[in-house]
Amino acid sequence: MDEYTLEVPDMTCEGCEIVITGAVAALPGVGRVDTDATTGRVTVHGDPSAKPRVRDAIEQAGYDVLE
């Protein structure tokens, strides 16, 4: 499984981690989601072709995603 990381600076607490994990984990092509509010990073283990859908899901949940 591949891994990629997205910067999500608005993720600042455990509640944010839970919301983002829930929004991303159910997407096709996503195997595992690791969120870390202290670094503002979301690491996704899965198919890299899912990255645009992951980004959209995080943004739909109300968070900005940096490249």
Automatic annotation (TrEMBL):
<dbReference type="Pfam" id="PF00403">
    <property type="entry name" value="HMA"/>
</dbReference>
<feature type="domain" description="HMA">
    <location>
        <begin position="2"/>
        <end position="66"/>
    </location>
</feature>
<dbReference type="InterPro" id="IPR036163">
    <property type="entry name" value="HMA_dom_sf"/>
</dbReference>
<protein>
    <submittedName>
        <fullName>Heavy-metal-associated domain-containing protein</fullName>
    </submittedName>
</protein>
<dbReference type="InterPro" id="IPR006121">
    <property type="entry name" value="HMA_dom"/>
</dbReference>
<dbReference type="GO" id="GO:0046872">
    <property type="term" value="F:metal ion binding"/>
</dbReference>
